[in-house]
Amino acid sequence: MIGSRTGSKNGRRADTHAQGRYLPPGYDAIAKPRAPRSGGGEGRTPSQRRIFLSLALFAACFTLVGARLVGLAIMGGDGESNVAIASAATQIHRPDIVDRNGEVMATDIATASLFADARYVIDPAETARQLASVLPDLDVQDVTQKLETGRAFIWLKRDLTPKQQYAVHYLGMPGLDFRNEQKRVYPNGKTGSNVLGMVDIDNRGIAGIERYMDDTFARKDDTGRPKFDRNRTLMLSIDLHVQHALRDELEKSMAEFSALAAVGVIMDVHTGEVVAMTSLPDFDPNDPMASPDNSRFNRATLGVYEMGSVFKAVTLAAALDSGKVGINASFDATKPLQVARFKIHDYHAENRWLTVPEVFIHSSNIGTAKIALQLGSEEHRQYLARFGLLTRPEIELPEAGSPLLPARWGELSTITTSYGHGIAVTPLQVASAVSTIVNGGFKVEPTFLRHNEPRLGERVISAEASATMRGLLRLVVMEGTGRKADVPGYPVMGKTGTAEKPIKGGYSRNKLITSFISAFPANDPRYAMIVMFDEPKATKETYGYATAGWNAAPVTARVISRVAPLLGIKPATKPQENDVLRQAKLVSYETLSGQ
Fold first, then answer.
1. CB 481, CB 549: distance < 8 Å
2. Which of 126, 292, 471, 511 has a Cα at 20 to 30 A from 504?
3. Which sign, positive or negative, has the C-alpha torsion 203, 209, 215, 220?
4. CB-based contacts of 159: which residues, under 8 Å, 6+ apart?
5. Which pLDDT score, from 0 to 100, does residue 148 have?
6. 300, 267 contact by CB (below 8 A)
7. pLDDT (tens digit per residue) in 362-417
8. Contacts of 46 (CB under 8 A, 6+ apart)
9. For residue 273, what is the DSSP state?
């Protein structure tokens, strides 16, 4: 019979299915208790409980299997999360880096990278062979092994060109896909590479200014990856045009003198801004691994060298400032200076008494040593510290070298350091010291970031001592060892330095570090520069000489003749030597210069 509608609020029998199906005959004759409205399993028959437990067990198993399937969908064969890998692989959008005039030095471009989901690769070996046919730099065996792992995310090749991406698309092979990424590009190639540094495959800065950006301007996300303000642009102190001219001249000169390496730094003497810096050999940051390892070594900021006679400028500036040595003092250079078992000689021996200007002009080791001794060992050391020559420079680049100092600062150390032996510093530190000497005596900290205002620090030497040193540095170029550094229209001041390289048990007479420090224009110095060569060779044109006056000095002249107009320095219309010497109270030396 048809089930009665009585006993149910919704017009249906309480134990009838919602579909209202017919009940078997005699069903109503059996008295059945009403199921309770609550209370879990109370009142259920054993068969109902078995059915309930079976359904619960089935649901639990279904949940576990489903969770495992989801896990397999996002996990590689070794348990590595595909989602995590993909997230970690998302590249970093870096700000542009521009020079002081807004010209781009580093920027990002969109690119694509190829990856595989090996679970969908049908034939790993065939897939590898097909990929190698359009991407010849892939190793078939290596790719095959990666695809055989069954992992859900495998990088195969990063930074594809559009042509390469199209070729892989055309293969139409399952399990391959692309990820849009950012690639760092450096439009000027090697120019400025030691300043810029480089990034890794994931666009993280690992050297130079790129590393500085990560450490200073980036905030970290949950995975530790740097995040940048996309609207930010980092402006450097570098002038690309000056940088190119400096690098070009050093590259040609390095080949001319068959040198192992060359360094050049140009610095604003009032702000410490590094306008140009080159360390050769260098590298192309677009493909840094294509260059030898030594090309990525920044000799200007990380390399430390015994710089030779350029240190005499620091020693003399300190002595004049202290008041212990006057400009009219004279020193006996008639014979070598005996110190314990060592003899100090002059390379350009005059074998006579020398005035202070003559000690400097003729680069007398004997005279400089006696000046340092008159200053005193401790005071000499303190001046070197105030010039920033005894500590690691605080600069933006992570590649900053610490100086090598004498273990004991006694009389012999004072003598040798006075003319640049027994102490090793970076070329950048020397350029900074030169800036202090010529800018009126104020310490300047080197920087690779653009600054619009002077950044003068504490006073190191007096304005009077600075003016005197400007005159003496000018005399070196007019009458001394730096004559080949002079440039018509752009009066140069400077000092040569030739140092024997240290070897086991002493110093090599044939392996030299040559350098020339300079500042220009001499009447109102705005820029300081250092040019340095590592083991330059003598040539026919240098008459067999390999000293600084024959290589670093003339290269300085070539560089200044090119960069001075770029820096907005107008050529002098008349000789300005008298002005420089008058400022230095060295007017009596006009006769020496023929003025």
1. yes
2. 292
3. negative
4. 111, 113, 181, 183, 201
5. 93
6. no
7. 999 999 999 999 999 999 999 999 999 999 999 999 999 999 999 999 999 999 99
8. none
9. B
Q: How far apart are CA 502 and CA 300, in angstroms?
A: 19
Question: What does the domain layout of the chain look like in residue ranges?
Answer: 92-235, 243-285+297-593
Number of Cβ within 10 Å of residue 506's Cβ equals: 8
Residue listed under structure tokens 């960069």: 563
**What are residue 520's DSSP bridge partners?**
527
Q: Which CATH superfamily is domain 243-285+297-593 in?
A: DD-peptidase/beta-lactamase superfamily (3.40.710.10)
Amino acid found at 115: F
The Cα 211–Cα 231 span in angstroms is 19
CATH of 92-235, one of 3.40.50.300, 3.60.21.10, 2.60.120.560, 3.90.1310.10: 3.90.1310.10
Backbone angles phi, psi at 360, to 5 degrees: -75, -45
Which two structure tokens, joined as six digits, stand for 122? 């049908």
Helix axes 46-74, 82-89, angle to 10 degrees: 30
One-letter amino acid of 524:
D
Measure the CA–CA gap between 587 and 595, rounded to whole angstroms. Answer: 10
Report the pLDDT value the prediction gives residue 54, as an integer from 0 to 100.
Answer: 60
206 torsion bin: left (phi>0), alpha (psi -120 to 50), beta (else): alpha
Q: Let me know if 309 is a catalytic residue.
A: yes
Sign of the four-CA dihedral 513, 514, 519, 520? negative
Provide the residue type at 529 as one letter.
M
C-alpha 526/C-alpha 548 separation (Å) is 23
Amino acid at 328: N
Across 35-39, 60-64, 197-201, 225-229, least confident range: 35-39
Q: Three-state DSSP class for 284?
A: coil
The DSSP symbol for 485 reads G
> Which is the catalytic residue, given 309, 322, 363, 432?
309
Q: Where are the alpha helices (DSSP H) in 324-404?
A: 356-361, 365-375, 377-386
Distance CA 249, CA 558 (A): 7
The pLDDT value recorded for residue 293 is 86
| Tens-place pLDDT, residues 90-121 | 567 899 999 999 999 999 998 999 999 999 99
The single residue listed with the structure tokens 């495992």 is: 68
Measured at the CA of 285, the angle between CA 281 and CA 286, to 5 degrees, comes to 130
Q: Report which secondary-structure segment, H or E, holds 226.
A: strand 226-227
The Cβ of residue 167 has, within 10 Å, a number of other Cβ atoms equal to 15
- Would you state the structure tokens that stand for residue 376, as one six-digit string? 């005193």
Instruction: Dig out the tokens for 573 from the structure.
Output: 């219309």
Sequence length of the chain is 595
- Between CA 129 and CA 139 the distance in angstroms is 9
Looking only at the bridges linking them, the beta strands covering 96-98 and 233-235 are parallel
